[in-house]
């Protein structure tokens, strides 16, 4: 058995760069389709070398400033309607979403080189996996990642479409019925000029649509890359389990030591990648938990107070589903990495360890000790896990009951 990418072991705090495109590049492109789609959503090409991204860096900075600029009209709307709780909460949910997108764009911008190098390393690891049993785990993992990524992008896209189509549907309906309709923007915004008369309304409408597209593209891309990394890490941990469980310790001492060294190097590489993933996503995970907790409160209030409006109910239900799916992606990714990293000792126990020499058994005991340390995706006191996701869902249900009892 050969290791998947043991020539690419971490040295210090660096990650190897991409290799030239292999003959099987088309197969790999299909395998890592989610990663490529995420990069394209942010304007990247898979063929751009990581040393040629200076122009793309300026593009990301421009996108960041563009999204930040939307905070002014949003906050102005909150201040202008400060005595109307329904309008304030409707705007706050959008303000919080915008803030979270700013965090995600900043995270990607600050760690852009590391994102690309991790993508390259995962692809190199897959390229060098020569056994069918090994590649099977990664192929299945990428199918699942692609499904979750598409579901999340669809959810974000539908929410954005609902926001944009709402005013258009009302304008068309009013014209058809011959009634008067007060213009409103897709997002609750207040500009320092007449944004309800022409041409101000048209300009603000276009500006709002562009902000929505940028927010949806970057949020989907950064979250999609996370779930792709997390699910691929789980697949490689599963590959490691398979290698340990099927290791032949009855070979000669020299052969067994060489094979065990490759297993240990593989384990070290996966732990290194897990910690690197946690490091670059720490601000995003922290912001995701804090902002989602706040969003749950304001969106639940909107849902409960707009039960009589089908259009508003669909809008806020879609919005709520989108932010919860967003949180689920991080909690699910953290959960599967934690669970699979703890299964290494079970793989050792299922192997023919009793055939190994005393020296090899001591090495196996070190692997067991190392695997008993949880690999967590966390930020401060927030841990990305399904238990915390369920806790926030319970909080949402409690808020519904509380608001209904107050009414």
Describe what you observe in this structure.
- By secondary structure, this protein is mostly helical.
- It has one domain.
- It is built from 13 helices and 2 strands.
- It has helices at residues 25-31, 33-41, 54-69, 71-80, 85-110, 112-127, 132-177, 200-245, 253-305, 310-341, 344-350, 358-371, 386-406, and strands at residues 378-379, 382-383.
- A two-stranded antiparallel ribbon has the order 1-2.
- β1 (378-379) and β2 form a beta hairpin.
- The longest helix has 53 residues, at 253-305.
Briefly, what is this?
With 407 residues, the protein is an all-alpha fold.
Q: Give me the count of strands.
A: 2
Number of H- or I-type helical stretches: 13
From the helix content, strand content and strand pairing, which structural class follows?
Answer: mainly alpha
The percent range for helix content is: over 70%
Strand order of the largest sheet: 1-2
Order of helices and strands: HHHHHHHHHHHHEEH
Number of domains: 1
Characterize the quaternary organization of these chains.
Answer: single chain
Query: Low-confidence spans: pLDDT under 50, at least 5 residues?
Result: 1-17, 20-29
Per the principal axes of the C-alpha atoms, what is the gross shape?
Answer: elongated
The description of the largest β-sheet is: 2 strands, antiparallel
Distance separating the two termini? 66 Å
Relative strand content: under 5%
Q: How many whole angstroms does the radius of gyration measure?
A: 25 Å
User: What's the pLDDT, averaged over the residues?
Assistant: 78
């Amino acid at each position: 058995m050969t290791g998947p990418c043991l020539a690419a072991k971490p040295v210090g705090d660096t990650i190897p760069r991409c290799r030239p495109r292999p003959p099987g590049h088309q197969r790999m492109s299909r395998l890592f389709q989610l990663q490529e789609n995420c990069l394209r959503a942010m304007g990247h090409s898979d063929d751009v070398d990581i040393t040629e991204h200076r122009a793309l860096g300026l593009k990301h900075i421009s996108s960041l400033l563009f999204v930040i600029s939307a905070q002014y009209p949003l906050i102005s709307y909150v201040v202008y309607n400060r005595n109307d709780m329904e309008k304030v909460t409707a705007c706050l949910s959008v303000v919080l979403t915008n803030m979270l997108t700013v965090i995600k764009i900043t995270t990607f911008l600050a760690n852009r080189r590391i994102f690309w190098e991790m993508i390259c390393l995962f692809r190199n690891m897959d390229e060098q996996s020569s056994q069918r049993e090994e590649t099977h785990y990664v192929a299945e993992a990428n199918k699942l990642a692609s499904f979750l990524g598409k579901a999340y992008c669809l959810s974000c896209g539908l929410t954005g479409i609902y926001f944009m189509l709402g005013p258009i549907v009302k304008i068309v309906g009013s014209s058809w019925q011959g009634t008067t309709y007060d213009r409103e923007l897709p997002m609750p915004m207040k500009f320092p000029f007449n944004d309800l008369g022409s041409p101000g309304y048209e300009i603000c409408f276009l500006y709002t649509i562009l902000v929505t597209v940028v927010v949806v593209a970057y949020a989907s891309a950064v979250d999609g890359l996370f779930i792709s990394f997390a699910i691929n890490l789980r697949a490689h941990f599963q590959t490691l389990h398979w290698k340990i469980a099927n290791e032949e310790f009855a070979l000669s001492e020299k052969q067994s030591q060489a094979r065990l060294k490759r297993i240990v190097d593989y384990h070290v590489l996966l732990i290194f990648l897990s910690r690197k993933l946690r490091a670059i996503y720490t601000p995003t995970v922290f912001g995701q938990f804090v902002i989602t907790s706040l969003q749950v409160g304001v969106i639940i209030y909107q849902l409960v107070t707009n039960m009589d409006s089908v259009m508003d109910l669909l809008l806020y239900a879609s919005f709520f589903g989108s932010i919860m799916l967003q949180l689920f992606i991080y909690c699910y990714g953290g959960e599967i990495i934690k669970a699979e990293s703890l299964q290494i000792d079970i793989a050792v126990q299922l192997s023919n360890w009793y055939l190994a020499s005393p020296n090899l058994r001591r090495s196996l005991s070190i692997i067991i000790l190392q695997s008993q340390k949880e690999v967590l995706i966390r930020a401060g006191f927030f841990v990305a896990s399904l238990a915390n996701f369920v806790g926030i869902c319970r909080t949402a249900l409690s808020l519904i009951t509380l608001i209904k009892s107050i009414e």
